[in-house]
Specification:
transmembrane helix, membrane, globular, DoxX, DoxX family protein, transmembrane
């Protein structure tokens, strides 16, 4: 079994990065569809609406960088911090069951991003191409 999984490692690493990054890319596309709505949501959470643009670029940029495996460790750390912080900000009403589930989802994703930061992008990545995957 170990040998089989080792043979699949490049593909599974790429698949895992893509699946984890899809959340960020889709969220960025959602922001792009209605900047005003997202800005209002930020303000409802006590943050400045001026963060809409930077958040949009962060979501799209980190998502795409993770997919291609460029600066993967740094990108994954940034995604972990963002995911944990946004989970705490957005889902802080623990009395609501859905908030608790969504926060736990963010915590689990944070663990996944930290795993990528620790273990790197795998062989099918820009980092590996330039000798930065190790």
């Amino acid at each position: 079994m170990e040998r089989f999984l080792l043979r699949l490692d490049p593909f599974l690493s790429l698949l895992a990065r893509t699946l984890m990054a899809t959340l960020f890319v889709m969220a960025g596309m959602d922001v792009a569809m209605d900047f005003a709505k997202f800005s209002a949501r930020l303000e409802a959470d006590g943050l400045s609406g001026y963060l809409t643009g930077p958040v949009f670029w962060f979501l799209i940029g980190t998502g795409l960088l993770l997919i291609i495996g460029a600066w993967t460790r740094l990108v994954a750390l940034a995604m972990a911090a963002f995911t944990l912080a946004s989970g705490i900000i957005d889902y802080g009403e623990f009395a609501r069951a859905t908030d608790m589930v969504m926060l736990l989802k963010n915590i689990a994703l944070t663990g996944g991003y930290l795993y990528v930061a620790l273990h790197g992008p795998g062989r099918w990545s820009v980092d590996a191409l330039f000798g930065r995957a190790g």
